[in-house]
Specification:
alpha/beta; two-stranded antiparallel ribbon
């Protein structure tokens, strides 16, 4: 065959290949558009219907910071649903009281002392819990601290401790329990972020940083698990509570108290458990706050600051 014929044949093959790739791209775009709108319709439908809730009866649910506040309330409510609650807290006395109250209400609970600041303690205790109880179906990263004062008044120790408890402890706990969930392709991880993980707030600069971090790592982990296994049944739920009446938020400020009031811990715990059982990826308390944050990001910052100043809602310093 002459060089001219060879060149013509190669050119023809190249053109055919280009046409094939273009057709393939068009098909991919059509499929993407179809799936895109189907997904939107499905989510709109779910928004206006009641989602089925998974049954937690008989399952082991581990909660950090179970000795007080939200952790204690979640332990009581999970216990009432028939779950076997594993309570972790650094305070043995208050943690034992939570276990006692769960049992008095007819539930099942086990208490363990754990300082979540220490990675080696988490790893050791996680191995003990798995050995004694087997598979842990639900892990709730709840433990957290919230100093409230201007950034320049935060000490190094205070800031480091906040990140150790509010963020790094989550990593060590997830690394301890996630492998079993991935292997069995089941289980739930719940992480307590905050509305301070949706909006930046004065007197809470380091705290906001920790809660934005929780939102970020949970979103990234969800993608990591999805790409590893598109049919993954391991559920990740990030919770964004508004100010809850547990004493953690010492000096809340409201211009309109009927509109922005402290949420009772019983109500907040029920909402968190509902979100976990429904398998929601994100849920605020109240629910509307996630939507408000998304809409707010479409509005120029200067305009949003005018709204924020008008509402005048936040947290005053705990040092004055």
């Amino acid at each position: 065959m002459s060089k001219t014929n060879q060149s013509g044949t190669a050119g023809s093959a190249g053109n055919n290949n280009d046409i094939y790739n273009i057709v393939l791209l068009i098909v991919d775009i059509v499929v993407l558009v179809a799936k895109f709108w189907i997904a939107i319709v499905e989510e709109l439908f779910k928004a206006f219907t009641t989602r089925p809730q998974s049954n937690v009866a008989g399952q082991f649910v581990l909660i950090t910071g179970a000795g007080h506040g939200m952790g204690k309330e979640m332990a009581l409510q999970y216990g009432a649903l028939g779950a076997k609650v594993i309570c972790w807290d650094v305070n043995e006395q208050t943690n034992s009281q939570t276990v006692k109250e769960v049992k008095q209400a007819g539930g099942t609970a086990f208490g363990y002392v754990c300082n979540v600041v220490k990675r080696e303690d988490i790893v050791e205790l996680a191995a003990k819990v798995r050995k004694e109880h087997g598979f842990i179906s639900v892990v709730v990263n709840n433990a957290g601290i919230m100093p409230c004062h201007p950034l320049l008044e935060h000490t190094e120790q205070e800031t480091r401790l906040m990140y150790d408890i509010n963020v790094l402890a989550h990593f060590w706990i997830i690394q301890a329990f996630l492998p079993d969930m991935v292997e069995r392709n089941e289980g739930s991880i719940v992480a307590l972020s905050s509305c301070a993980g949706l909006f930046g707030l004065p007197n809470l600069v380091p705290y906001c940083g920790t809660k934005f971090a929780v939102r970020g790592y949970m979103a990234a982990l969800a993608e990591e698990l999805r790409l590893k296994n598109p049919q993954t049944n391991v559920k990740l739920t990030t919770i964004f509570p508004y100010m809850i009446d547990t004493g953690l938020c010492k000096n809340p400020r409201f211009r309109f108290p009927n509109l922005f009031k402290l949420i009772p811990p019983q109500e907040a715990a029920a909402s968190i458990i509902e979100a976990q059982r429904e398998g929601l990826e994100e849920a605020a308390i109240p629910r509307r706050f996630v939507a408000i944050e998304k809409i707010g990001r479409l509005i120029p910052r200067k305009a949003m600051r005018l709204v924020n100043d008008f509402l005048d809602t936040g947290v005053d310093s705990d040092k004055h």
